[in-house]
Amino acid sequence: MSVGFGFSVGDFIAGIELVHTVIGALRESGDSSTEYQELISQLYTLETALQRVKQVELDDIQHSEAVALRQAASQCQRTIDGFLEKITKYQPSLRAGGSGHTIKDAWRKVKWALCQKEDVVKFKMDLMAHTVSINMLLTAVHT
After folding, report:
1. Mean of the per-residue pLDDT values for the chain?
2. CA 142, CA 81: separation in Å to the nearest integer?
3. Rounded to an integer, what distance in angstroms lies between the CA atom of residue 138 and that of residue 143?
4. Is the pTM of this model over 0.70?
5. Contact between residue 112 and residue 99 where contact means Cβ atoms under 8 Å apart
6. How many angstroms separate the CA atoms of 9 and 51, rounded?
7. What angle do helix axes 117-141 and 63-87 make, rounded to 10 degrees?
8. Phi-psi region for residue 57, left (φ > 0), alpha (ψ -120 to 50) or beta?
9. What is the rounded distance in angstroms from the CA atom of residue 132 to the CA atom of residue 15?
10. Are the beta carbons of 46 and 130 closer than 8 angstroms?
């Protein structure tokens, strides 16, 4: 007998909305560099994987697969939450037009460029790992 996956619809909606929030925050930065465009592309790929997880139906005997998918999605959400928390304070200064405080915006842009690039690189690597993990689990479930 096939049963629902075990996540509440609200959990997946929250996860997918979180991905949209990060995409929006990055787009507001006004930076169209290749690095940020790649990050946005990775977020869309992750969103697609999460939507596939949301739609999967597992048999009762696939309990371990359900647990693995649930853990992978939870780890992914923690990674996104952590990154969003780090970039939130920069968003008003990085978006087009800035926050209206020229000196504060300039300082935050410099700080972002010098200090946060490392966080973006790590975030991109983490997203890629989560996406690959989720897709591998989905492939295993469907074989």
Report:
1. 76
2. 29
3. 9
4. no
5. no
6. 11
7. 160
8. beta
9. 17
10. yes
